[in-house]
Every structure is written in structure tokens, then in C-alpha cells.
Amino acid sequence: MANKSSSGIGTSPELKGSAKKKFPTSFGVFSPTGYVLMVFPDDANAEKARQALLQSGFNESDVTHYKRNEVLKELEVSEEHANEPVQIGQDVDKVDRYLEFAKQGSGFLAVHAPEEKKSTLAVNVVRPFNLKFAEKYNRLTLEELA
User: Fold this and answer.
1) Which whole number is the average pLDDT over 20-49?
2) pLDDT of residue 10
3) Are 70 and 11 spatial neighbours (Cβ–Cβ below 8 Å)?
4) How many whole angstroms separate alpha carbon 111 and alpha carbon 40?
5) Calpha distance 3→23 (Å, rounded)
6) Residue 88: is its pLDDT beyond 70?
7) Which of helix, strand or coil describes residue 65?
8) Are 62 and 126 contacting, i.e. CB atoms less than 8 angstroms apart?
9) What phi and psi, each to the nearest 5 degrees, are found at residue 3?
10) pLDDT 10s digits, 7-33
11) Which of 12, 68, 13, 77 is nearest to 45 (CA)?
12) Helix ranges restricted to H, 14-145
């Protein structure tokens, strides 16, 4: 599992006082290996999708809702360091795409679903909540799921 140590994201009320998971990183680079990153039109749809995933058997610790302002903050910091040697492996086009979604007001979910069966289930569960985009981060590849 990726190192999760480089974000300044605080707590979230939906986690009932516990610290929200930080963005998954490896050597300071956004790297959610084993996760499906999902984008919804807004935070309300993202939260409804999160609740549906929990009701479908996903664990609270496997489903994290990131609000648009959290994504904007994290990815803008990432873009500032895009030319640093450790960041060069990061797909700048993906960061730009996520930034554009956040600027449009989109809500985001990161769902830990390393197995294909689990990632397929996750996407199918959240489709009714106006899923705009879903992408799975495998060890060496990205797989667009929606």
C-alpha cells in the first residue's frame, strides 16, 4: 500500500472526529495504487455514493470523500512541484484533469479496491449518483473504468 504522509488535510465531520485519510502518495507524489478515484458532479452526490458503498459492504476505512477544496489544495501543491525529479513520474495531464473537475465543483471519492471484482462492484454501485469519471490505479498502469 502507498505511503500516506504528505497531505495537510484535516478532519472530516463524516468520520465522526477521526482524522480523514490523507491523499495516497509515494515519495510525495500522488499515487493511489489499489484505489479507484471517482469524480461526481458535486460533493452531495459524492457523499450519497459513499453511503451507498458503505451499505454495499465496503468498509469505512476503504472509502474516503474528498471535497473539492481539499482536492484543489492538494493538487495545486503537487503542481507547484511538478518539475522536481521525484515528481516527474506523475502524470501531469491527470493532475490537470482532476484540478479542472475540482474547479467545476466536483466531489471525489477514493475507494480502496485492489481486486478487479471489488473495483467493478464499486463503480456499479455509484453509477446512479451521476458518476463523471472513475479510474483505477494499478501498480504500473491506470485503468479508466467510467
Assistant:
1) 78
2) 33
3) no
4) 13
5) 9
6) no
7) strand
8) no
9) -65, 135
10) 333 333 333 333 456 555 544 445 678
11) 68
12) 43-55, 68-80, 92-103, 116-126
